[in-house]
């Protein structure tokens, strides 16, 4: 009987197979469903990672700000150390570090010697100077090749005698160095220097800087005393006759084919249209015809000259040829300004001042050739004409390597009332004038021949 009761009891303790297979409990080796939400641990890790990243970014920004503040605070000291001094300090640190790591007394001696050299240089950088410095250029404007002198005046404005020092003065691409001796209170010391003016340019003299430091150049303390001063080296120009016949003549009053309602050259009568000014009504003809008639006029030309130089280096065979082109531009422009003819001038994309001959010459001193892809002359002229309106004469200056098609393309920018004159600079070539379509092409071989060419040109 006991066996009959035990069998059902043991069977009831084993769960059915179906209940085991249908259980939702995970089995070892199985993966979680792909659509299951992330666990709390993963969310916590992500939040911690974002918090650490934000903290690191904030700490990095704070370190950068602190580093910038330290660099600004230390700049009065670090700026005194020259590149050679930084190299010596770095070599000293390396030598002393290796000596400590390797135990080499020789490296320790080298590091100590280099460090001592920097320390010995420190007293040479000290010293207070109270100077008043002036840079005088005489004259401020010269023609290329003329002599120009400069004068550097140093005055002791302190309350004690000034110790000897050294002044450096950049002049163009060069650097002039002057030794200033001990100057008593209120005393002055002057130095004269020559300015190279062989070629056209704007030469900058200054700023004058006093230098204190050691003879090895490890420490270098600079004090700036003046602002830069400019010397204008004008291009060589040829004198043209005032109101010369040709491209610089006054075209005021020449009649054009443009019809207008307000001018001085009477053209014809036409029927009145709403909006016409009553002052143009011809009353006698209106009474005879029984219809209001108004006057029409032919527009008279206002003399306006557009002077443009191409600055692309590929248009010129040499630097001398480019300088000849600048001289041609300056010669014509100066005479046009003197003749009180309205002028708009440009060199490449640079607009040139034309208020006075001096302003124009100052502007031509800054003209420089441009390397790289050349801007078509047509585009250069079009851009310049937008500022001045339709000119009566356009003068384009270029080099011997500029294609003739470039000059002819300028004709398409303006109408038939605008005359085009192209001047090609070609050093050593025979000067001549040719006609190409509606344009006049003049070759200038030397600046001395420009006045004769100008007299022969008829726009």
TrEMBL record:
Classification via InterPro entries: DUF58
Keyword annotations: Membrane, Transmembrane, Transmembrane helix
Membrane-spanning ranges: 84-102, 108-126
Feature: compositional bias, Low complexity: 7-19
Pfam families given in the database record: DUF58
Limits of the DUF58 domain: 269-358
Annotated region described as Disordered, given as residue ranges: 1-40
Domain of life: Bacteria
Designated name of the protein: DUF58 domain-containing protein
Species this chain originates from: Agromyces tropicus
């Amino acid at each position: 009987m006991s066996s009959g009761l035990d069998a059902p009891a043991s069977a009831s303790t084993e769960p059915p197979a179906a209940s085991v297979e249908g259980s939702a409990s995970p089995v070892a080796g199985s993966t979680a469903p792909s659509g299951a939400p992330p666990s709390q641990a993963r969310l916590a890790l992500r939040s911690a990672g974002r918090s650490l990243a934000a903290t690191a970014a904030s700490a990095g920004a704070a370190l950068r700000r602190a580093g910038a503040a330290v660099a600004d605070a230390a700049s009065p000291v670090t700026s005194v150390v020259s590149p050679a001094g930084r190299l010596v300090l770095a070599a000293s640190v390396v030598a002393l570090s290796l000596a400590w790591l390797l135990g080499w007394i020789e490296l320790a001696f080298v590091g100590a010697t280099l460090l001592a050299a920097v320390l010995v240089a420190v007293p040479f950088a000290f010293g207070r100077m109270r100077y008043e410095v002036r840079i005088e250029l005489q004259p401020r404007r010269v023609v290329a090749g003329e002599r120009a002198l400069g004068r550097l005046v140093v005055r002791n404005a302190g309350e004690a005698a000034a110790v000897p020092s050294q002044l450096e003065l950049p002049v163009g691409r060069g650097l002039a160095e002057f030794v200033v001796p001990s100057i008593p209170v209120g005393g002055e010391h002057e130095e004269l220097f020559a300015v190279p003016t062989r070629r056209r340019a704007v030469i900058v003299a200054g700023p004058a800087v006093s230098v204190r430091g050691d003879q090895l150049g490890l420490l270098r303390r600079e004090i700036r005393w003046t602002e830069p001063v400019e010397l204008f080296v004008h291009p060589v120009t040829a004198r043209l006759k005032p109101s010369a016949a040709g491209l610089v003549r006054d075209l005021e009053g020449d009649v054009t084919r443009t019809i207008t309602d307000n001018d001085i050259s009477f053209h014809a009568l036409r029927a009145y249209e709403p909006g016409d000014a009553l002052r143009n009504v011809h009353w006698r003809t209106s009474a005879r015809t029984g219809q209001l008639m108004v006057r029409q006029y032919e527009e008279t030309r206002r003399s306006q000259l557009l002077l443009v130089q191409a600055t692309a280096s590929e248009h010129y065979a040499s630097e001398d040829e480019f300088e000849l082109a600048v001289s041609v531009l300056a010669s014509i422009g100066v005479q046009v300004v003197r003749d009180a003819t309205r002028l708009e001038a440009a060199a490449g994309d640079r607009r040139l001042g034309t208020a006075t001959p001096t302003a124009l010459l100052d502007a031509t001193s800054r003209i420089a050739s441009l390397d790289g892809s050349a801007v078509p002359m047509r585009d250069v002229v079009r851009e310049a004409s937008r500022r001045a309106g339709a000119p009566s004469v356009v003068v384009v200056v270029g080099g011997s390597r500029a294609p003739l098609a470039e000059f002819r393309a300028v004709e398409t920018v303006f109408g038939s009332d605008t005359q085009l004159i192209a001047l090609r600079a070609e050093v050593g070539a025979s000067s001549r004038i040719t006609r190409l379509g509606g344009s006049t092409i003049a070759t200038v071989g030397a600046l001395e021949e420009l006045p004769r060419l100008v007299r022969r040109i008829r726009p």
